[in-house]
Amino acid sequence: MWKSLKRNLQILREGWNTADRATRQRHVILFLLHFVTLLFAGEQFSTQGQSNKIHLDPLLYAVALSIILLGYSLARYVQARSYGLFASFPYFIPMPLFSPFGTLGVITRTAPGGADSRALFDIAFWGPATCFLLSLPCVVLGVWLSDIVPGEPQYENPLLVIALAKLFRDLPAGYDLAVHPLLAAGWVGLFFCAINLFPVGNLSGGQIAWALLGRRQRELGYLTLVAVFVLALYYPLWFILVLAFIYIGVEHPQLRRQPHPLFHDLPAEPPQPLDLRRRLMALVPLAIFVLSFTMRPFNLGPSAPTLPPQQLSPPEPEIPAPDPEAEEEQSI
């Protein structure tokens, strides 16, 4: 394990040193802008009942989510470079206005031309796996540290968060967890992880599906697009994902008949069969998707109250009505 860590650090160091100055500046500026937008978004996630630490909450959210997204992108980078393939350092996408999380995620461009299906599988596998492993402790600690508040949940939780809430906390009817910054960062990490595991195009899920299924990835990708479209009929925000899938392409790059302007298309050649170990490893992304995906991520109704139960005002004591007979006795 120590040798692998040392090798990965050496790959990162060599990649950073070989990049030109303008490229390094671009990546640093995007990361700093991304971190600032995370700070603004983190204002909505505060530890209830801890007003003396409320200014640290946005910083905690920004640091935790940056680590999660950075781990995802660097895992893809290290895997690609370890196979001798081109990969760029992460491009963070700040989004201060239209995203409740302050980010649209991170992109690591890869051009695995001439790579076999085993290399493509490893590149696609370790990104979501690392993202999930980094999100998991944030979710566990966030559930443990979150206060219980009255009201409906602001976000629909994935299966993992629901299971942890039942395991660690006793939520009475009509109450939910106040979103702790760590829970918010882990929730966003799981959300981006699930989106990236759709078996579509050049997403990690699409690359895994191509390595496993070959040309049948095309049918799986279009079935996924139809399923998301049907889901969007009940939850309209998913239409954004439908448009994104159409734009980036449903088919894997090796199945495209026309070149795509955003990606490096690969020569059309059938993938090599994966070994048994990798075929069994393919069950891990499926389990991650099941634990991380939520059908209705946002509650479009009114937000829940933010006061914890111990800060709610106690009911006023009832004043008994005056007794007419007692008044007559006093008047006599």
Output the keywords:
332 residues, mainly alpha, two-stranded antiparallel ribbon, 12 helices
Structural commentary:
The chain is mainly alpha-helical and 332 residues long. The protein is built from twelve helices and six strands. It has a domain of 196 residues. The strands form three sheets. A two-stranded antiparallel sheet has the order 1-4. The chain has a two-stranded antiparallel ribbon with strand order 2-3. Strands 5-6 form a two-stranded antiparallel sheet.
- The whole-number mean of residue pLDDT values reads 80
Shape: globular
- Strand composition percent: 5-15%
Strand order of the largest sheet: 1-4
| Protein structure class | mainly alpha
Binned, the helix content reads 40-55%
Radius of gyration: 25 Å
For the biggest sheet, the summary is: 2 strands, antiparallel
Helix and strand succession? HHHEEEEHEHEHHHHHHH
Low-pLDDT sequence parts: 260-268, 300-316
